[in-house]
């Protein structure tokens, strides 16, 4: 009879060590640009670099960060990005969850055509809607405003579809029992269905916030005032001013990246679960 140790040895992957080494090499390739960016941001401004190793050796200084934070609008751009990202995420969760609940658990006319309309929305690339969105926002006098940046971005067909699929998995018997006990549709939504959908809501929230944080095209078209610039719009403007120097542009990029890196480290498990839950890659 085979012992447990013999079974363990038999099932051990002979290529495990090779796979671990390959994974570490790939991880280093991905993280190296971030490490280089942080080192460059700590180098003295206009320092001469004779060879690549000079980027990683002393001297170091935080003077670049002080100059950027005190003498530029980077903090304002960062604040705009946070405000727009948070409000867009909250409104998207509210609208998509309500729409998904209606499509999943309520009966009304034209329910199937409306759902097919949401499915069709996934097949339309965002770039194809830019001109109609711009004309609508312009006609409503919302260009160069927070509302003009946020409202066009809260429509999320994929969010509605993901949540509807999740709500469909809630047993019909649970819903009927709650209705017999006198639960209204709002209480069914708030007290029963929504708490069960936390994994789906977390996935949608993560991808909505990241999409808003990285969004360049729509803010670039809808913003005129520098006071409303977000980081994706403001950083290229800043970099074009200091195109002859590596240090200050890298410092700005580091400031823009550090909040996202911290968020990833704090919510790593939720992000991984969100990717596996939605089936999205990349």
UniProtKB/TrEMBL annotation:
<dbReference type="GO" id="GO:0005886">
    <property type="term" value="C:plasma membrane"/>
</dbReference>
<feature type="transmembrane region" description="Helical">
    <location>
        <begin position="188"/>
        <end position="210"/>
    </location>
</feature>
<keyword id="KW-0812">Transmembrane</keyword>
<dbReference type="Pfam" id="PF00528">
    <property type="entry name" value="BPD_transp_1"/>
</dbReference>
<keyword id="KW-0472">Membrane</keyword>
<dbReference type="InterPro" id="IPR000515">
    <property type="entry name" value="MetI-like"/>
</dbReference>
<feature type="transmembrane region" description="Helical">
    <location>
        <begin position="246"/>
        <end position="267"/>
    </location>
</feature>
<keyword id="KW-1133">Transmembrane helix</keyword>
<feature type="domain" description="ABC transmembrane type-1">
    <location>
        <begin position="78"/>
        <end position="267"/>
    </location>
</feature>
<keyword id="KW-1003">Cell membrane</keyword>
<feature type="transmembrane region" description="Helical">
    <location>
        <begin position="20"/>
        <end position="39"/>
    </location>
</feature>
<comment type="similarity">
    <text>Belongs to the binding-protein-dependent transport system permease family.</text>
</comment>
<feature type="transmembrane region" description="Helical">
    <location>
        <begin position="114"/>
        <end position="134"/>
    </location>
</feature>
<protein>
    <submittedName>
        <fullName>Carbohydrate ABC transporter permease</fullName>
    </submittedName>
</protein>
<dbReference type="GO" id="GO:0055085">
    <property type="term" value="P:transmembrane transport"/>
</dbReference>
<dbReference type="InterPro" id="IPR035906">
    <property type="entry name" value="MetI-like_sf"/>
</dbReference>
<keyword id="KW-0813">Transport</keyword>
<feature type="transmembrane region" description="Helical">
    <location>
        <begin position="146"/>
        <end position="167"/>
    </location>
</feature>
<feature type="transmembrane region" description="Helical">
    <location>
        <begin position="77"/>
        <end position="102"/>
    </location>
</feature>
């Amino acid at each position: 009879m085979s012992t447990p140790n013999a079974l363990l040895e038999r099932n051990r992957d002979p290529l495990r060590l090779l796979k671990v080494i390959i994974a570490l090499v790939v991880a280093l390739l991905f993280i190296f640009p971030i490490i280089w960016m942080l080192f460059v941001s700590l180098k003295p401004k206009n320092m001469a670099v004779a060879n690549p190793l000079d980027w990683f050796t002393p001297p170091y200084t935080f003077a670049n960060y002080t100059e950027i934070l005190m003498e530029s609008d980077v903090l304002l751009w960062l604040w705009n990005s946070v405000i727009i990202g948070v409000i867009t995420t909250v409104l998207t969760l509210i609208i998509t969850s309500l729409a998904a609940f209606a499509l999943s658990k309520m009966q009304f006319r034209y329910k199937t055509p409306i759902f097919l309309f949401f499915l069709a929305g996934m097949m339309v690339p965002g770039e194809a809607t830019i001109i109609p969105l711009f004309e609508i926002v312009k006609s409503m006098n919302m260009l160069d405003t927070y509302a003009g940046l946020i409202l066009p971005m809260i429509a999320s067909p994929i969010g509605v579809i993901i949540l509807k699929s999740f709500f469909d998995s809630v047993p019909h018997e649970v819903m009927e029992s709650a209705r017999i006990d006198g639960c209204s549709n709002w209480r069914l939504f708030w007290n029963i269905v929504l708490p069960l959908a936390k994994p789906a809501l977390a996935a949608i929230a993560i991808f909505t916030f990241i999409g808003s944080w990285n969004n360049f095209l729509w803010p670039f078209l809808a913003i005129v005032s520098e006071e409303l610039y977000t980081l994706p719009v403001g950083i290229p403007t800043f970099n074009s001013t200091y195109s002859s120097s590596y240090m200050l542009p890298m410092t700005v990029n580091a400031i823009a990246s550090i909040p996202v890196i911290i968020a990833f480290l704090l919510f790593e498990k939720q992000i991984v679960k969100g990717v596996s839950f939605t089936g999205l890659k990349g």
